[in-house]
Design goal:
By secondary structure, the chain is α+β, with helices and mostly antiparallel strands. It has a domain of 105 residues: Roll (Thiol Ester Dehydrase, Chain A). Helices cover 20% and strands 37% of the residues. It is built from 5 helices and 8 strands, in the order E-E-E-H-H-H-H-E-E-E-E-E-H. Strands 2, 3, 5, 6, 7 and 8 form a 6-stranded antiparallel beta sheet that branches. It has a two-stranded parallel ribbon with strand order 1-4. It is elongated.
Length: 158
């Protein structure tokens, strides 16, 4: 089994408003739609029946909103790549506006940007603006994600 190299920790104090991370683009194939169906249990034909979608005049299967929102997971972005790792303790809250339909065959480009840092006694809250654009550079989703992040003093005390 290959050894994982230890990453340099980044704490709340190391973060800066304006930092941006992108996730690799992903083309939403029918296979991803079916995988999401297994995870979500949502069996509406709008998301999984191509003939039904064609009968409605849609260009393909319509992605479930949560399928699009899942693209903004911080662990999927380059926030988790490289030699550093933000000491995220957990997700506190998320919100999203779904602005444009995502269809099978669309390629999505997610991004996360720090827009606010809220200091607390032993932790901090990193507020991220989330966005997902499609291959036509149309904004499909915008939202906010709040993550609890360790402070140096908290981790040193444990």
């Amino acid at each position: 089994m290959p050894r994982r190299t230890k990453k340099i920790p980044r704490y709340f104090e190391d973060l800066k408003v304006g930092e941006v991370w992108e996730a690799p683009s992903r083309t939403h194939t029918e296979s991803l739609f079916y995988a999401f169906q297994l995870v979500s249990g949502d069996n509406r034909p709008l998301h999984y029946d191509m003939e039904y979608c064609k009968s409605l005049g849609l260009p393909g299967l319509l992605a479930h909103g949560y399928q699009v929102l899942a693209q903004t997971a911080p662990g999927a972005s380059d926030m988790s790549r490289g030699d550093t790792e933000i000491r995220i303790l957990g997700m506190l809250e998320t919100s999203a506006k779904f602005l444009k339909g995502v269809y099978s065959g669309d390629t999505l480009y997610p991004a996360l940007e720090i827009v606010e840092l809220i200091e607390q006694n032993t932790t901090g809250v990193m507020v991220l603006r989330t966005s997902v654009h499609n291959q036509k550079d149309e904004l499909c989703l915008e939202g906010e994600l709040r993550m609890l992040v360790a402070k140096r003093s908290r981790e040193a005390a444990t």
